[in-house]
UniProtKB/TrEMBL annotation:
Transmembrane segments: none annotated. SUPFAM superfamilies: Acyl-CoA N-acyltransferases (Nat) (SSF55729). The lineage of its organism: Bacteria, Pseudomonadati, Spirochaetota, Spirochaetia, Leptospirales. It comes from the Bacteria. InterPro entries: Acyl_CoA_acyltransferase, GNAT_dom, YpeA/RimI_acetyltransf. CDD domains: NAT_SF. Residues 3-141 form the N-acetyltransferase domain. The keyword Acyltransferase applies. Keywords: Acyltransferase, Transferase. It comes from Leptospira bouyouniensis. This is GNAT family N-acetyltransferase.
Length: 142
């Protein structure tokens, strides 16, 4: 399967909102949140004819924080998120990467560990539902 990696912008606003609803039902970002993110930060997607996996990221001069990364349900367990992470690492080769993930999201934690992230700390009762966040970091590969 030949996948395209692309930067997503304000022209993809409705598409990102649809992806959010599919990937995070009940916890999806609002249209205003996505729009604000795209005004100040960046998004990337990977897929064949349409986006199947996406990431909302914040780039600073010294690091990249992944705010959201998700694969739509019908395309999960195909390695798309790992491929997207690898593309992001190539896009920003000299930067540290940070993210946080719910402690209960074991598949995501396994993915991040396999992609070179390490756990930095845990933040108890971090999320609105009271769950713990795992803060993770990946250093650039020299």
């Amino acid at each position: 399967m030949s996948l395209s990696f692309q930067r997503l912008g304000e022209g993809n606003l409705k598409e990102i909102q649809t992806l959010e609803a599919l990937c995070f039902p009940g916890e999806e970002w609002t249209m205003k949140m996505i729009q604000t993110h795209l005004e100040f930060h960046v998004a990337f997607g990977i897929g064949d004819s349409e986006t199947q996996c996406y990431a909302l990221v914040c780039e600073t001069p010294w690091e990249v924080e992944i705010f959201r990364i998700a694969t739509i349900p019908n395309f999960r367990k195909l390695g798309l998120a790992k491929q997207l992470l690898e593309k992001l690492f190539k896009e920003f080769p000299k930067k540290d990467f940070f993210l946080e993930v719910k402690e209960s999201n074991e598949p995501a934690i396994k993915l991040y560990l396999s992609a070179g992230f390490v756990e930095l700390e845990r933040r108890k009762k971090y999320y609105p539902d009271g769950s713990t966040a795992v803060l993770m970091k990946r250093n650039p590969i020299e």
